[in-house]
Write the C-alpha coordinates for this entry.
Amino acid sequence: MNFGRGPSVVLNVGGTRYSFSREVLKDFPLRRVSRLHGCLSEQDVLEVCDDYDRERNEYFFDRHSEAFGFIMLYVRHGHLRFVPHMCELSFYNEMIYWGLEGSHLDYCCQRRLDDRMSETCTYYAAEEPPGEPDGGPEGKGQGRRPAGAEGGKWLERMRRTFEEPTSSVAAQVLATVSILFVIVSMVVLCASTLPEWRVPENRSVEEQSRYTAESVREPSGIIEAICIGWFTAECIVRFIVSKNKCEFVRRPLNIIDLLAITPYYISVLMTVFTGENSQLQRAGVTLRVLRMMRIFWVIKLARHFIGLQTLGLTLKRCYREMVMLLVFICVAMAIFSALSQLLENGLDLGTKNKDYASIPAACWWVIISMTTVGYGDMCPITVPGRILGGICVVSGIVLLALPITFIYHSFVQCYHELKFRSARYSRSLSAEFLN
Protein backbone atom coordinates (compact mmCIF):
# COMPACT_ATOMS: atom_id res chain seq x y z
CA MET A 1 0.00 0.00 0.00
CA ASN A 2 1.58 3.26 -1.13
CA PHE A 3 -0.82 5.62 0.60
CA GLY A 4 -1.44 6.23 4.28
CA ARG A 5 0.66 5.55 7.33
CA GLY A 6 0.64 3.06 10.17
CA PRO A 7 1.07 -0.68 10.39
CA SER A 8 -2.67 -1.41 10.23
CA VAL A 9 -5.69 -0.35 8.20
CA VAL A 10 -9.20 0.18 9.59
CA LEU A 11 -12.29 -0.50 7.48
CA ASN A 12 -15.45 1.18 8.73
CA VAL A 13 -18.46 -0.45 7.07
CA GLY A 14 -21.73 1.12 8.18
CA GLY A 15 -20.33 1.88 11.64
CA THR A 16 -18.65 -1.50 12.22
CA ARG A 17 -14.84 -1.38 12.25
CA TYR A 18 -12.46 -4.07 11.04
CA SER A 19 -8.68 -3.81 11.48
CA PHE A 20 -6.22 -5.49 9.07
CA SER A 21 -2.52 -5.33 8.43
CA ARG A 22 -1.29 -3.79 5.20
CA GLU A 23 0.04 -7.08 3.87
CA VAL A 24 -3.35 -8.76 4.28
CA LEU A 25 -5.00 -6.22 1.98
CA LYS A 26 -2.71 -7.12 -0.90
CA ASP A 27 -4.31 -10.53 -1.50
CA PHE A 28 -7.67 -9.87 0.15
CA PRO A 29 -10.50 -12.02 -1.35
CA LEU A 30 -12.71 -8.95 -1.84
CA ARG A 31 -11.61 -7.02 -4.92
CA ARG A 32 -12.77 -3.63 -3.66
CA VAL A 33 -10.76 -3.99 -0.46
CA SER A 34 -7.68 -5.28 -2.26
CA ARG A 35 -7.77 -2.22 -4.55
CA LEU A 36 -6.83 -0.08 -1.55
CA HIS A 37 -3.35 -1.60 -1.60
CA GLY A 38 -2.54 0.04 -4.92
CA CYS A 39 -3.89 3.53 -4.18
CA LEU A 40 -1.25 6.26 -4.59
CA SER A 41 -3.24 9.32 -3.53
CA GLU A 42 -6.26 10.33 -1.55
CA GLN A 43 -8.20 10.81 -4.78
CA ASP A 44 -7.54 7.17 -5.69
CA VAL A 45 -8.77 6.12 -2.26
CA LEU A 46 -12.01 8.09 -2.60
CA GLU A 47 -12.70 6.28 -5.85
CA VAL A 48 -12.76 3.02 -3.88
CA CYS A 49 -14.43 4.05 -0.62
CA ASP A 50 -16.85 6.80 0.45
CA ASP A 51 -14.62 8.67 2.91
CA TYR A 52 -11.13 8.55 4.40
CA ASP A 53 -9.70 9.66 7.77
CA ARG A 54 -5.98 10.35 7.38
CA GLU A 55 -5.26 10.58 11.13
CA ARG A 56 -6.81 7.22 11.97
CA ASN A 57 -5.97 5.66 8.62
CA GLU A 58 -9.64 4.66 8.49
CA TYR A 59 -11.60 3.94 5.30
CA PHE A 60 -15.35 4.43 5.47
CA PHE A 61 -17.83 2.47 3.32
CA ASP A 62 -21.48 3.50 3.47
CA ARG A 63 -22.78 -0.05 3.04
CA HIS A 64 -24.91 -2.54 4.94
CA SER A 65 -22.89 -3.57 7.99
CA GLU A 66 -24.73 -6.85 8.66
CA ALA A 67 -24.35 -7.96 5.05
CA PHE A 68 -20.62 -7.23 5.20
CA GLY A 69 -20.42 -9.30 8.37
CA PHE A 70 -21.76 -12.33 6.48
CA ILE A 71 -19.33 -11.59 3.66
CA MET A 72 -16.48 -11.57 6.18
CA LEU A 73 -17.64 -15.00 7.38
CA TYR A 74 -17.12 -16.15 3.78
CA VAL A 75 -13.60 -14.65 3.82
CA ARG A 76 -12.74 -16.55 7.00
CA HIS A 77 -14.57 -19.87 6.53
CA GLY A 78 -15.32 -20.10 2.79
CA HIS A 79 -19.14 -20.32 3.07
CA LEU A 80 -21.38 -17.50 1.88
CA ARG A 81 -25.08 -17.48 2.75
CA PHE A 82 -27.87 -14.92 2.72
CA VAL A 83 -28.53 -12.66 5.68
CA PRO A 84 -31.79 -13.73 7.38
CA HIS A 85 -34.73 -11.38 6.82
CA MET A 86 -32.85 -9.53 4.08
CA CYS A 87 -33.91 -9.33 0.45
CA GLU A 88 -31.86 -11.65 -1.74
CA LEU A 89 -31.41 -8.94 -4.37
CA SER A 90 -30.18 -6.43 -1.77
CA PHE A 91 -27.61 -8.88 -0.49
CA TYR A 92 -26.60 -9.71 -4.07
CA ASN A 93 -26.11 -5.97 -4.65
CA GLU A 94 -23.76 -5.90 -1.67
CA MET A 95 -21.87 -8.89 -3.08
CA ILE A 96 -21.41 -7.17 -6.43
CA TYR A 97 -20.15 -4.03 -4.67
CA TRP A 98 -17.46 -5.93 -2.79
CA GLY A 99 -16.44 -7.93 -5.85
CA LEU A 100 -18.21 -11.26 -5.34
CA GLU A 101 -20.46 -13.15 -7.75
CA GLY A 102 -23.44 -15.44 -7.44
CA SER A 103 -21.20 -18.48 -7.85
CA HIS A 104 -19.60 -17.72 -4.48
CA LEU A 105 -22.91 -18.46 -2.73
CA ASP A 106 -23.70 -21.89 -1.36
CA TYR A 107 -25.85 -24.03 -3.64
CA CYS A 108 -29.10 -23.55 -1.71
CA CYS A 109 -28.68 -19.76 -1.74
CA GLN A 110 -27.77 -19.82 -5.44
CA ARG A 111 -31.15 -21.40 -6.22
CA ARG A 112 -32.93 -18.77 -4.12
CA LEU A 113 -31.08 -16.03 -5.97
CA ASP A 114 -31.86 -17.54 -9.38
CA ASP A 115 -35.57 -17.76 -8.56
CA ARG A 116 -35.62 -14.23 -7.22
CA MET A 117 -33.78 -12.82 -10.23
CA SER A 118 -36.11 -14.70 -12.57
CA GLU A 119 -39.10 -13.07 -10.90
CA THR A 120 -37.52 -9.62 -11.04
CA CYS A 121 -36.45 -9.89 -14.67
CA THR A 122 -39.95 -10.96 -15.69
CA TYR A 123 -41.48 -8.15 -13.68
CA TYR A 124 -39.36 -5.42 -15.22
CA ALA A 125 -39.62 -6.88 -18.70
CA ALA A 126 -43.38 -7.19 -18.53
CA GLU A 127 -44.23 -3.91 -16.87
CA GLU A 128 -43.57 -0.24 -17.16
CA PRO A 129 -44.72 2.18 -14.51
CA PRO A 130 -48.06 3.71 -15.44
CA GLY A 131 -47.76 7.29 -16.47
CA GLU A 132 -44.10 6.87 -17.53
CA PRO A 133 -44.32 5.64 -21.10
CA ASP A 134 -40.69 6.30 -21.83
CA GLY A 135 -39.72 3.88 -19.08
CA GLY A 136 -36.05 4.80 -19.31
CA PRO A 137 -33.65 7.21 -17.73
CA GLU A 138 -33.99 9.68 -20.56
CA GLY A 139 -37.42 10.58 -19.22
CA LYS A 140 -36.13 11.48 -15.77
CA GLY A 141 -35.24 14.94 -14.74
CA GLN A 142 -37.03 16.55 -17.64
CA GLY A 143 -39.47 19.33 -17.13
CA ARG A 144 -42.18 19.96 -19.64
CA ARG A 145 -42.54 17.62 -22.52
CA PRO A 146 -41.63 19.15 -25.88
CA ALA A 147 -44.39 19.85 -28.33
CA GLY A 148 -43.24 17.04 -30.62
CA ALA A 149 -43.68 14.51 -27.78
CA GLU A 150 -47.46 14.90 -27.68
CA GLY A 151 -47.77 12.54 -30.63
CA GLY A 152 -45.64 9.96 -28.84
CA LYS A 153 -47.79 10.29 -25.74
CA TRP A 154 -50.91 9.71 -27.81
CA LEU A 155 -49.36 6.63 -29.45
CA GLU A 156 -48.36 5.31 -26.03
CA ARG A 157 -51.92 5.71 -24.79
CA MET A 158 -53.23 3.92 -27.88
CA ARG A 159 -50.71 1.14 -27.39
CA ARG A 160 -51.76 0.60 -23.80
CA THR A 161 -55.41 0.63 -24.84
CA PHE A 162 -54.85 -2.24 -27.26
CA GLU A 163 -52.19 -4.17 -25.32
CA GLU A 164 -53.31 -3.81 -21.70
CA PRO A 165 -57.03 -4.65 -21.23
CA THR A 166 -57.09 -3.27 -17.66
CA SER A 167 -55.16 -0.05 -18.30
CA SER A 168 -58.22 2.17 -18.95
CA VAL A 169 -61.98 2.16 -19.44
CA ALA A 170 -61.55 2.29 -23.21
CA ALA A 171 -59.20 -0.70 -23.05
CA GLN A 172 -61.78 -2.72 -21.11
CA VAL A 173 -64.50 -1.85 -23.61
CA LEU A 174 -62.22 -2.80 -26.50
CA ALA A 175 -61.28 -6.08 -24.82
CA THR A 176 -64.95 -6.92 -24.23
CA VAL A 177 -65.81 -6.30 -27.87
CA SER A 178 -62.86 -8.41 -29.00
CA ILE A 179 -63.95 -11.28 -26.74
CA LEU A 180 -67.46 -11.12 -28.18
CA PHE A 181 -66.12 -11.32 -31.71
CA VAL A 182 -63.99 -14.33 -30.79
CA ILE A 183 -66.97 -16.10 -29.22
CA VAL A 184 -69.25 -15.36 -32.17
CA SER A 185 -66.61 -16.56 -34.63
CA MET A 186 -66.08 -19.80 -32.72
CA VAL A 187 -69.82 -20.47 -32.51
CA VAL A 188 -70.21 -19.96 -36.27
CA LEU A 189 -67.19 -22.18 -36.96
CA CYS A 190 -68.56 -25.00 -34.80
CA ALA A 191 -72.10 -24.68 -36.18
CA SER A 192 -70.86 -24.80 -39.77
CA THR A 193 -69.67 -28.39 -39.22
CA LEU A 194 -73.11 -29.65 -38.14
CA PRO A 195 -74.99 -31.84 -40.67
CA GLU A 196 -78.13 -29.77 -40.07
CA TRP A 197 -76.18 -26.69 -41.16
CA ARG A 198 -75.08 -28.22 -44.48
CA VAL A 199 -78.13 -30.23 -45.53
CA PRO A 200 -80.56 -27.30 -46.00
CA GLU A 201 -77.94 -25.57 -48.08
CA ASN A 202 -77.56 -28.75 -50.21
CA ARG A 203 -73.82 -28.32 -50.66
CA SER A 204 -70.94 -30.77 -50.68
CA VAL A 205 -67.87 -30.52 -48.49
CA GLU A 206 -65.84 -29.04 -51.34
CA GLU A 207 -68.51 -26.45 -52.00
CA GLN A 208 -68.47 -25.51 -48.34
CA SER A 209 -64.79 -24.60 -48.66
CA ARG A 210 -65.37 -22.06 -51.43
CA TYR A 211 -65.91 -18.36 -50.86
CA THR A 212 -68.25 -17.56 -53.71
CA ALA A 213 -70.47 -14.54 -54.02
CA GLU A 214 -73.47 -16.59 -52.88
CA SER A 215 -71.68 -17.90 -49.78
CA VAL A 216 -70.61 -14.40 -48.75
CA ARG A 217 -74.22 -13.22 -48.86
CA GLU A 218 -75.32 -15.98 -46.49
CA PRO A 219 -75.62 -15.12 -42.76
CA SER A 220 -72.60 -17.25 -41.85
CA GLY A 221 -70.50 -15.60 -44.57
CA ILE A 222 -71.55 -12.13 -43.45
CA ILE A 223 -70.73 -12.87 -39.81
CA GLU A 224 -67.38 -14.38 -40.76
CA ALA A 225 -66.50 -11.37 -42.93
CA ILE A 226 -67.37 -8.96 -40.11
CA CYS A 227 -65.27 -10.90 -37.60
CA ILE A 228 -62.33 -11.05 -39.98
CA GLY A 229 -62.65 -7.34 -40.64
CA TRP A 230 -62.58 -6.56 -36.93
CA PHE A 231 -59.55 -8.77 -36.26
CA THR A 232 -57.72 -7.34 -39.26
CA ALA A 233 -58.35 -3.75 -38.20
CA GLU A 234 -57.30 -4.53 -34.64
CA CYS A 235 -54.08 -6.18 -35.80
CA ILE A 236 -53.22 -3.29 -38.14
CA VAL A 237 -53.82 -0.65 -35.47
CA ARG A 238 -51.72 -2.55 -32.93
CA PHE A 239 -48.93 -2.84 -35.48
CA ILE A 240 -49.03 0.90 -36.23
CA VAL A 241 -48.91 2.01 -32.57
CA SER A 242 -46.29 -0.55 -31.53
CA LYS A 243 -42.86 0.75 -30.49
CA ASN A 244 -40.77 -1.93 -32.16
CA LYS A 245 -42.26 -3.33 -35.37
CA CYS A 246 -39.82 -6.25 -35.59
CA GLU A 247 -40.51 -7.24 -31.98
CA PHE A 248 -44.24 -6.98 -32.67
CA VAL A 249 -44.01 -9.49 -35.52
CA ARG A 250 -41.98 -11.93 -33.40
CA ARG A 251 -44.44 -12.09 -30.50
CA PRO A 252 -46.25 -15.44 -30.23
CA LEU A 253 -49.75 -13.97 -29.85
CA ASN A 254 -49.26 -11.75 -32.89
CA ILE A 255 -48.07 -14.72 -34.93
CA ILE A 256 -51.24 -16.55 -33.89
CA ASP A 257 -53.30 -13.57 -35.02
CA LEU A 258 -51.69 -13.71 -38.46
CA LEU A 259 -52.24 -17.48 -38.68
CA ALA A 260 -55.91 -16.99 -37.89
CA ILE A 261 -56.51 -14.07 -40.28
CA THR A 262 -54.50 -14.92 -43.39
CA PRO A 263 -56.34 -18.21 -44.27
CA TYR A 264 -59.53 -16.26 -44.98
CA TYR A 265 -57.83 -13.94 -47.46
CA ILE A 266 -55.91 -16.85 -49.03
CA SER A 267 -59.15 -18.72 -49.54
CA VAL A 268 -60.84 -15.71 -51.08
CA LEU A 269 -57.91 -15.09 -53.43
CA MET A 270 -57.84 -18.74 -54.49
CA THR A 271 -61.54 -18.61 -55.27
CA VAL A 272 -61.14 -15.39 -57.23
CA PHE A 273 -58.24 -16.66 -59.33
CA THR A 274 -59.44 -20.24 -59.89
CA GLY A 275 -63.14 -19.58 -60.30
CA GLU A 276 -65.33 -22.67 -60.66
CA ASN A 277 -62.83 -24.96 -62.43
CA SER A 278 -61.51 -28.29 -61.24
CA GLN A 279 -58.40 -26.78 -59.69
CA LEU A 280 -60.48 -25.42 -56.86
CA GLN A 281 -62.10 -28.81 -56.36
CA ARG A 282 -58.66 -30.37 -55.93
CA ALA A 283 -57.76 -27.58 -53.51
CA GLY A 284 -60.82 -28.28 -51.36
CA VAL A 285 -58.81 -30.09 -48.69
CA THR A 286 -56.33 -27.22 -48.48
CA LEU A 287 -59.14 -24.70 -48.11
CA ARG A 288 -60.80 -26.72 -45.37
CA VAL A 289 -57.51 -26.86 -43.48
CA LEU A 290 -57.12 -23.11 -43.85
CA ARG A 291 -60.63 -22.48 -42.59
CA MET A 292 -60.08 -24.72 -39.56
CA MET A 293 -57.05 -22.62 -38.64
CA ARG A 294 -59.56 -20.10 -37.35
CA ILE A 295 -59.61 -22.19 -34.20
CA PHE A 296 -56.45 -20.29 -33.25
CA TRP A 297 -58.70 -17.35 -32.44
CA VAL A 298 -59.42 -19.05 -29.13
CA ILE A 299 -55.82 -18.34 -28.12
CA LYS A 300 -56.54 -14.63 -28.62
CA LEU A 301 -58.42 -14.86 -25.33
CA ALA A 302 -55.01 -15.09 -23.64
CA ARG A 303 -54.81 -11.30 -23.97
CA HIS A 304 -57.77 -10.95 -21.64
CA PHE A 305 -57.58 -13.91 -19.22
CA ILE A 306 -54.83 -14.37 -16.64
CA GLY A 307 -55.24 -18.14 -16.66
CA LEU A 308 -54.13 -18.53 -20.28
CA GLN A 309 -51.33 -16.00 -19.77
CA THR A 310 -50.15 -17.99 -16.75
CA LEU A 311 -50.12 -21.17 -18.80
CA GLY A 312 -48.03 -19.58 -21.55
CA LEU A 313 -45.58 -17.98 -19.13
CA THR A 314 -45.22 -21.25 -17.21
CA LEU A 315 -44.41 -23.17 -20.39
CA LYS A 316 -41.87 -20.50 -21.32
CA ARG A 317 -40.10 -20.68 -17.98
CA CYS A 318 -40.31 -24.46 -17.54
CA TYR A 319 -39.10 -25.46 -20.97
CA ARG A 320 -36.12 -27.22 -19.37
CA GLU A 321 -38.40 -29.27 -17.15
CA MET A 322 -40.66 -30.02 -20.13
CA VAL A 323 -37.68 -31.20 -22.18
CA MET A 324 -36.55 -33.30 -19.23
CA LEU A 325 -40.02 -34.86 -19.03
CA LEU A 326 -39.97 -35.68 -22.75
CA VAL A 327 -36.52 -37.23 -22.40
CA PHE A 328 -37.76 -39.41 -19.54
CA ILE A 329 -40.70 -40.60 -21.62
CA CYS A 330 -38.60 -41.23 -24.74
CA VAL A 331 -36.01 -43.27 -22.85
CA ALA A 332 -38.67 -45.34 -21.11
CA MET A 333 -40.55 -45.78 -24.39
CA ALA A 334 -37.44 -47.07 -26.15
CA ILE A 335 -36.72 -49.58 -23.39
CA PHE A 336 -40.25 -50.90 -22.82
CA SER A 337 -41.15 -51.03 -26.51
CA ALA A 338 -38.09 -53.18 -27.29
CA LEU A 339 -38.76 -55.51 -24.35
CA SER A 340 -42.47 -55.83 -25.09
CA GLN A 341 -41.80 -56.65 -28.75
CA LEU A 342 -39.32 -59.28 -27.68
CA LEU A 343 -41.62 -60.90 -25.12
CA GLU A 344 -44.78 -60.79 -27.23
CA ASN A 345 -43.47 -61.50 -30.72
CA GLY A 346 -39.72 -62.03 -30.75
CA LEU A 347 -39.54 -65.26 -28.72
CA ASP A 348 -40.75 -68.56 -30.11
CA LEU A 349 -43.39 -69.29 -27.51
CA GLY A 350 -45.96 -70.81 -29.81
CA THR A 351 -48.30 -67.81 -29.54
CA LYS A 352 -47.28 -64.54 -31.13
CA ASN A 353 -49.04 -61.25 -30.59
CA LYS A 354 -49.39 -59.59 -33.98
CA ASP A 355 -50.02 -56.21 -32.36
CA TYR A 356 -46.37 -56.18 -31.27
CA ALA A 357 -44.93 -57.15 -34.64
CA SER A 358 -42.40 -54.30 -34.53
CA ILE A 359 -40.84 -51.91 -32.04
CA PRO A 360 -42.55 -48.82 -33.55
CA ALA A 361 -45.91 -50.57 -33.15
CA ALA A 362 -45.06 -51.36 -29.53
CA CYS A 363 -44.16 -47.70 -28.93
CA TRP A 364 -47.84 -46.80 -29.28
CA TRP A 365 -48.78 -49.21 -26.50
CA VAL A 366 -45.96 -47.92 -24.27
CA ILE A 367 -46.80 -44.22 -24.63
CA ILE A 368 -50.51 -44.84 -24.02
CA SER A 369 -49.80 -47.03 -21.00
CA MET A 370 -47.36 -44.53 -19.46
CA THR A 371 -49.50 -41.43 -19.91
CA THR A 372 -53.04 -42.86 -19.46
CA VAL A 373 -54.69 -46.07 -18.31
CA GLY A 374 -54.50 -47.50 -21.84
CA TYR A 375 -57.04 -47.71 -24.66
CA GLY A 376 -57.24 -51.50 -24.71
CA ASP A 377 -56.80 -51.61 -28.49
CA MET A 378 -53.63 -53.64 -27.97
CA CYS A 379 -52.46 -55.43 -24.86
CA PRO A 380 -49.95 -58.15 -23.94
CA ILE A 381 -51.19 -61.74 -23.80
CA THR A 382 -48.18 -63.51 -22.32
CA VAL A 383 -47.40 -63.57 -18.61
CA PRO A 384 -43.98 -61.91 -18.99
CA GLY A 385 -45.56 -59.27 -21.23
CA ARG A 386 -48.24 -58.49 -18.65
CA ILE A 387 -45.65 -58.19 -15.90
CA LEU A 388 -43.70 -55.81 -18.12
CA GLY A 389 -46.93 -53.87 -18.75
CA GLY A 390 -47.48 -53.40 -15.02
CA ILE A 391 -43.92 -52.15 -14.59
CA CYS A 392 -44.42 -49.82 -17.55
CA VAL A 393 -47.57 -48.28 -16.02
CA VAL A 394 -45.96 -47.77 -12.60
CA SER A 395 -42.83 -46.31 -14.19
CA GLY A 396 -44.95 -43.88 -16.18
CA ILE A 397 -46.63 -42.62 -13.00
CA VAL A 398 -43.27 -42.09 -11.30
CA LEU A 399 -41.57 -40.46 -14.28
CA LEU A 400 -44.45 -38.06 -14.90
CA ALA A 401 -44.61 -37.08 -11.23
CA LEU A 402 -40.93 -36.14 -10.90
CA PRO A 403 -40.92 -32.77 -12.81
CA ILE A 404 -44.47 -31.84 -11.79
CA THR A 405 -43.32 -30.14 -8.56
CA PHE A 406 -41.08 -27.69 -10.42
CA ILE A 407 -43.80 -26.92 -12.96
CA TYR A 408 -46.39 -26.42 -10.20
CA HIS A 409 -44.25 -23.93 -8.27
CA SER A 410 -43.50 -22.03 -11.47
CA PHE A 411 -47.21 -21.92 -12.30
CA VAL A 412 -48.10 -20.47 -8.88
CA GLN A 413 -45.29 -17.94 -9.15
CA CYS A 414 -46.37 -16.82 -12.64
CA TYR A 415 -49.99 -16.56 -11.52
CA HIS A 416 -49.12 -14.26 -8.61
CA GLU A 417 -46.94 -12.08 -10.85
CA LEU A 418 -49.70 -11.63 -13.42
CA LYS A 419 -52.27 -11.00 -10.69
CA PHE A 420 -50.03 -8.29 -9.23
CA ARG A 421 -49.63 -6.75 -12.67
CA SER A 422 -53.38 -6.81 -13.27
CA ALA A 423 -54.08 -5.28 -9.85
CA ARG A 424 -51.55 -2.54 -10.54
CA TYR A 425 -53.27 -1.56 -13.77
CA SER A 426 -56.64 -1.80 -12.04
CA ARG A 427 -55.46 0.75 -9.48
CA SER A 428 -54.39 2.98 -12.35
CA LEU A 429 -57.80 2.48 -13.93
CA SER A 430 -59.58 3.43 -10.70
CA ALA A 431 -57.52 6.62 -10.41
CA GLU A 432 -58.32 7.50 -14.04
CA PHE A 433 -62.03 6.88 -13.44
CA LEU A 434 -62.07 9.08 -10.33
CA ASN A 435 -60.22 11.88 -12.10
